[in-house]
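Review this today:
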Amino acid sequence: MTTPKISRRSFAATAMTALSYSRVMGANEKLRMGYIGVGNRGDQVHDGFLEHGDAVTAAVCDLRDEYMDFAIKKSRGATPRKYTDYRKLIEDKEIDAVAIATPDHWHAIMFGEACLAGKDVYCEKPLSLTQKEGRYMVNMAEKTKRVVQVGIHRRSAKFLQEAAEYVRSGKLGKVTVARGFHIQNEWPNGIGNAPDTAPANAKEWDAWLGPAPMVPYNKNRTYYDFRWFYNYSGGQLTNFGVHYIDMLRWALGKDSPKSVAAIGGKYAVQDNREIPDTLEVIWDYGDALIIFCQYNANAAPSNLQGSEMEIRGTLGTMYLHGNRWEVVPEKVTDNIFPARTPLDRTAEKAYNPSKKTRIEPAGSKGSADTAFHARNFIDCVKSRAKCNCDVETGYLSTSATQLGNIALKVRAQLDWDAKAERFTNNDKANQYLGYEYRKPYKLPS
């Protein structure tokens, strides 16, 4: 995805010149897409765009030829150009927009260069590796007037839009707690204990690491399993958790948390990962808690409904599954008689009001296919409207998960100043908001 042959200075100059190639598209024009990273999730994103006839695969980029060849074969009559250097793809004047589906630690650099080159961007979740990178990406998108869609694709699912509106309308009553669950039994071996070895291709390993620290090659650090190492990812908290936090934050109408706390560790699995296999994170949003639960188990459902998420209100609870949501009404009374003394308890028995529900059961079914999110991005590129998961939305949800990881690392409850974007009660925690890139890598400006 990168090579040392092109200097950062020469690319920056090319990128600024390329701003002139940004164009306004007609409603019936085809969007010429370039895909950076076409393995695993990148392949799924590519499939999402291929569902639409007005998106054409113009170019693909990856470090692995077999991934690019596979993407080209499914490109429906197009003849995409192949690049192993992502900067060559971004320089391509025949490309209108890029989809970035690389490991998380590459997102910010590629995003910045694409924006400066006048490309609109579909960036996979989580938006960035660190909070400071995320803020940079928001500012860069605003500076260059780019249309951005962050790949939290549930934002474009109609049945989840209905769920969010149901909660925001107040029908659940006062919501005080919402939870998301990632349940996966990886015991006993997890990803295994692969030893460090010499890379089969030292140049490719150096390119894969990019801005991350140079470390010995280990196959567990590459491709899908990179998510288990903090130099490249935030673990399952940012991988799955960002979907849940975004959905819950969306439904509750919240932006940034007031504080965060986390506890967990590697309790069950014996492998060379860095991330926990068991974790709970709690965010305080002022008048409601949002909680992420990562459990190493499969046998039992996460709650009575076996859902991925639950939103608990005073009038009922909403359970969200992968393809549906349902509301179970709460039985409540108009008044609860306080039984503080024996005489009170006697009076309470005489009072004994009947409990009843105040809302009706509700629910809906649907799909959260990536194709809906791709459709929204294509339409917004043409209209220049804000996407369903624009860069600021993606930043707020990604940042919350990153703050959770920092709380786990420092083992403290952290108070967050959303305006200053700093912790107010722990200087050590602020050191984890960003990191120093390996030379010569830096964020484009």
Q: What stands out?
A: The chain has 14 helices and 18 strands.
